[in-house]
Design goal:
- With about 400 residues, this protein is α+β, with helices and mostly antiparallel strands.
- It contains 19 helices and 11 strands.
- The chain has a 6-stranded mixed β-sheet with strand order 2-1-9-3-4-5, with helices on both faces. It has a 3-stranded antiparallel β-sheet with strand order 6-8-7. It has a two-stranded antiparallel ribbon with strand order 10-11.
- Helix 1 packs parallel to helix 3, helix 11 runs antiparallel to helix 12 and helix 14 packs across helix 16.
- The longest helix has 18 residues.
- It is elongated, with a radius of gyration of 25 Å.
- The model has no long low-confidence stretch (mean pLDDT about 85).
């Protein structure tokens, strides 16, 4: 390694990207391109940083697999910040294996942490947890340890486990202090705020209350039958029935749960589920069909009983019934919840995270843009979406989660 490259590397490790550029800005050999790429990323020019790192990886070539793999890890980290969650992560597992085989345990662990963070963003919590378990956290530098703690906390918050989430955030805060990076400290503080903020609204027959995540955890652990409109599910204890993509059934279940143990008239059910302003024979026939579907869907946890007025909910073994709703209800809350992290998302990354088609996400974004809640910048593949303002419901309950039914 020549003296200028060595000096630039020391400047980079001390967090001085301008000193790096001062030494290698006019050089186009592979090590200089890699250092320039990382320096540009630290300065916030992520597009130029990705181009430089791609050039560096090509310049290193197959004869220097370790250097090439380190460039690919750096590029994956930038892709994560840009919320480009697809192509850059398809080869990250192989890159990590190359680093482990070559003895670079630090960068291999960092690659594993990036992979876990991407899996968390797209809601694959079990895979993210397994990836974290495979990482040797002791070799990670403080900044990556803070990120590791944030991923552990993120998984725990989505699984509604507040104790592990608080413990992980404490570890992340200590690591962020050791790293001395202000933006990292701010990210940990933002996660702490999200943990303590109202996560849901509890709606019962007589009242409505805002709940923090630990309140939601206590409610879920009780013998209360819950219609969860944050997760689009009905749940009782360990049993969780997904009603995702079945909005009519969810609306019927919510209407029945809000007045339990009373019954709901057919007219009110038609208004809640279909927006019907009058009742005719076709509406009654459709209601019978949807009630039959609801009975079948929630059969493991509750029944729906016909009454002279309409229908009533009859949960099995539950002493209470409640509706768990977002603190502020809005159209397409799952999109707003993802954008609430403050990053600029592409529509393809949002589609991947939500598990829907790009066209479906595009329609939702267009609806939200018409309502003034989101806005875009850039064109074509460079188009990104951000929130127009900070939403009033920073709740982790709206973020993607694969629901195991039964």
């Amino acid at each position: 390694m020549d003296m200028l490259i060595a000096a630039a590397a020391r400047a980079l490790s001390s967090g001085d990207p301008l000193a790096v550029l001062k030494r290698v800005a006019l050089r186009n050999d592979a090590p200089a391109l890699a250092l320039r790429g990382i320096a540009m990323a630290q300065l916030g020019d992520l597009g130029r940083a990705r181009e430089l790192l791609k050039d560096a990886a090509r310049a290193f070539g197959p004869d220097e697999p370790m250097a090439r793999a380190r460039c690919m890890v750096a590029e994956a980290e930038i892709a994560l910040v840009c919320r480009d969650l697809g192509r850059s992560f398809q080869t990250l597992g192989a890159t990590r294996a190359t680093l482990e085989a070559g003895g670079d345990q630090v960068n291999a662990a960092h690659a594993g942490y990036l992979e876990a963070r991407q899996l968390l963003l797209i809601g694959r919590l079990d895979d993210a947890h397994r990836t974290l378990d495979s990482i040797d956290i002791d070799v990670l530098p403080p900044a990556s340890r803070a990120g590791y703690g944030l991923v552990v906390a993120g998984i725990a918050m989505r699984q509604i486990r507040t104790g592990p989430a608080r413990a992980a955030l404490q570890q992340a805060a200590r690591a962020a202090r050791d790293a001395g990076i202000p933006s990292l400290k701010a990210e940990v503080e933002k996660a702490r705020h999200a943990l303590e903020a109202p996560a849901a609204r509890l709606v019962s027959r007589d009242r409505q209350d805002l709940l923090q995540l630990d309140g939601v955890e206590a409610l879920v652990a009780s013998d209360t039958f819950i219609v969860d409109t944050c997760r689009n599910a009905a749940r009782l204890g360990e049993k969780m029935i997904s009603l995702d993509r079945r909005p009519v059934l969810l609306a019927l279940a919510r209407a029945l749960a809000e007045v339990w143990p009373e019954d709901v008239s057919r007219e009110n059910l038609l208004m809640h589920a279909f927006g019907a302003k009058h009742v005719d024979d076709s509406h009654r026939a459709r209601l019978r069909v949807e009630i039959a579907r609801l009975r079948k869907a929630i059969k493991p946890v509750a029944a729906v009983r016909a009454t002279s007025l309409g229908f009533a909910l009859k949960p099995y073994g539950a002493r209470q019934v409640a509706v768990l709703a977002p603190p502020v209800e809005s159209d397409h809350p799952e999109v707003l919840a993802l954008l609430a992290d403050g990053e600029a998302w592409s529509s393809s990354a949002l589609a991947m995270a939500l598990g829907v088609s790009p066209r479906t996400v595009q329609r939702k974004l267009e609806d939200l843009a018409l309502a003034g809640k989101v806005r875009s910048f850039g064109r074509g593949r460079a188009c990104r979406w951000i929130l127009s303002c900070v939403p009033g419901f920073p709740t982790s309950l709206l973020l993607p989660l694969a629901i195991a039914t039964g």
